[in-house]
Amino acid sequence: MSEVFGGTPKTTRETRVPPEANARVGFWPASARQEATCADGADLSRKQGCAARRALFRSGINIAIIGGGPAGLRAAEVAAAAGASVTLFDAKASVGRKFLVAGRGGLNLTHAEPRLDFAQRYTGRDQPPGTWTSLLADFDADALRAWAAELGVETFAATSGRVYPRALKAAPLLRRWVHRLREAGVKFSLHHRWTGLRPGTQWQLDFQVQGEARTVEADAVILALGGGSWPETGSDGGWVSGLEKLGVAVNGFKSSNCGWELPWPAAVLALAEGQPLKNITARAGAVTAVGELLVTRYGLEGGAIYQLGPALRAMAHPEIAIDFKPTHTVEQLVRKLGNCPNNFLAAARSRWKLSDAAYAILENRPGGAPFTSAESLATTTKNCPLPLTGPRPLSEAISSAGGVCWRELDASLMIHRLPGVFVAGEMIDWDAPTGGYLMQGCFVTGTRAACGAVAWRPAGGGPAR
Ligand SMILES: Cc1cc2nc3c(=O)[nH]c(=O)nc-3n(C[C@H](O)[C@H](O)[C@H](O)COP(=O)(O)OP(=O)(O)OC[C@H]3O[C@@H](n4cnc5c(N)ncnc54)[C@H](O)[C@@H]3O)c2cc1C
Question: From the CA of 232, how far away is ligand 1's center (Å)?
Answer without folding.
Answer: 10
